[in-house]
Amino acid sequence: MSTDDAHFQVTEMPVIRALTKAAKQALLTPGCRCRTAVTAVRTISVSPRQVTSDASFHSVSFSETDHPKVLITGGLGQLGVGLAKILRKRFGNNNVILSDIRKPPSHVFHSGPFIYSDILDYKNLREIVVNNRITWLVHYSAVLSAVGEANVQLAREVNITALQGLSNSSLYLVVFFCFFFGLHNILDFAAEHGLRLFVPSTIGAFGPTSPRDPTPDLCVQRPRTIYGVSKVHAELMGEYYHHRYGLDFRCLRYPGIISADSQPGGGTTDYAVAIFHDASKNGKFECNLKPGTRLPMMYIDDCLRATLEVMEAPTEQLSMRTYNINAMSFSPEELAAEVKKQIPDFQITYNIDHIRQAIADSWPMNFDDGNARNDWGWKHDYDLPELVTTMLNFIGSDSRLAHAN
Ligand SMILES: NC(=O)c1ccc[n+]([C@@H]2O[C@H](COP(=O)([O-])OP(=O)(O)OC[C@H]3O[C@@H](n4cnc5c(N)ncnc54)[C@H](O)[C@@H]3O)[C@@H](O)[C@H]2O)c1
Ligand SMILES: C[C@@H](O)[C@H](N)C(=O)O
């Protein structure tokens, strides 16, 4: 098994297992959840589709001076736990509920409210929102780019062990539709309950026909991954609900996010996290993208702060509802050169994953985030040297701590 395959197994299987379990149930049980979700969206008596365009959805008592009550879906991935931490610091521990379909590790479970929530289950979501008087919803649940694309070995494993009887193409169809229904559930009840809704998008929402250097907020968006297509869909649906029903939809297109204490969930930019762990532990790293592959990237602290800032931004500052945000752009060889400044013996080799490479080659190289900077004052703190120092210090002190214990 290659390092890359091993990485896939370690970091992506829980997500795939959880997702395919949901997908399998949805398809194989009578009155499957996919169908139920569609029915709920179409027939629920308070559906936005049945309310006039000037109706106010902001029926939940929530003023700008109150602390919001936040629900984070898909919160056990790379970003959710960190976001919960900064939101709890700002709004109080009990005002931020983390949720996922996976079992939380003990330190997460004991750090604040955690609840099971499957975004495909409209009733379950609705109960959580109503019972906890949720006012902000951060919709993090997703299947990232590389997991969403055809990985034959992984797909076969999943088909045999999780979706017996379904063909590869059926599996991808299920993932695709569950993703959409999940989003539709979220949009419908966010509008119904007057929630402020944050859905992250990505550099992956652009494709090979978009301008790539730099990529502006508004341009051709023809992504070639199912992940990108679903994110463009989310951007458009969110903006449509905003204009049509007054939904307070806010969306940031994140670059590849780099974090030390949480693992990425199966994306194309994951190499930029793995490199620090391998450099710190073994002094070498095998990269699955070509040396010159330039992509926009950001340290997690900047990403989470941007999320809080756009959620708190007064409505009148938002000239748009979907913004690019950026901090830096680099290629594997540039990142390796920066790591080498701190670990002089560090060696990088290349073993290209053609699926990830094709995805990366279709994505922006530089991201133009001028609108975010002008409208609500976005400003990043971490550039490449700062990122490398921070990551290596964090991982180094973490492993020294582990050795000491
Ligand atoms: N991490 C990045 O580099 C990056 C970059 C751009 C955008 N984003 C976006 O930010 C969000 C969070 O990213 P992440 O890196 O934390 O993702 P991740 O893949 O690490 O985590 C996603 C989480 O969603 C959960 N999930 C899957 N199906 C679910 C369901 N049916 N119901 C509830 N939860 C479910 C998974 O269990 C997992 O914990 C995603 O929407 C992603 O597209 C991330
Ligand atoms: C860029 C982003 O959306 C994610 N890290 C991925 O590579 O899929």
UniProtKB/TrEMBL annotation:
<keyword id="KW-1133">Transmembrane helix</keyword>
<keyword id="KW-0812">Transmembrane</keyword>
<feature type="transmembrane region" description="Helical">
    <location>
        <begin position="169"/>
        <end position="187"/>
    </location>
</feature>
<keyword id="KW-0472">Membrane</keyword>
<dbReference type="GO" id="GO:0006567">
    <property type="term" value="P:L-threonine catabolic process"/>
</dbReference>
<protein>
    <recommendedName>
        <fullName>L-threonine 3-dehydrogenase, mitochondrial</fullName>
        <ecNumber>1.1.1.103</ecNumber>
    </recommendedName>
</protein>
<comment type="pathway">
    <text>Amino-acid degradation; L-threonine degradation via oxydo-reductase pathway; glycine from L-threonine: step 1/2.</text>
</comment>
<dbReference type="GO" id="GO:0008743">
    <property type="term" value="F:L-threonine 3-dehydrogenase activity"/>
</dbReference>
<dbReference type="InterPro" id="IPR051225">
    <property type="entry name" value="NAD(P)_epim/dehydratase"/>
</dbReference>
<dbReference type="Pfam" id="PF01370">
    <property type="entry name" value="Epimerase"/>
</dbReference>
<comment type="function">
    <text>Catalyzes the NAD(+)-dependent oxidation of L-threonine to 2-amino-3-ketobutyrate, mediating L-threonine catabolism.</text>
</comment>
<feature type="domain" description="NAD-dependent epimerase/dehydratase">
    <location>
        <begin position="184"/>
        <end position="325"/>
    </location>
</feature>
<dbReference type="InterPro" id="IPR036291">
    <property type="entry name" value="NAD(P)-bd_dom_sf"/>
</dbReference>
<comment type="similarity">
    <text>Belongs to the NAD(P)-dependent epimerase/dehydratase family.</text>
</comment>
<dbReference type="InterPro" id="IPR001509">
    <property type="entry name" value="Epimerase_deHydtase"/>
</dbReference>
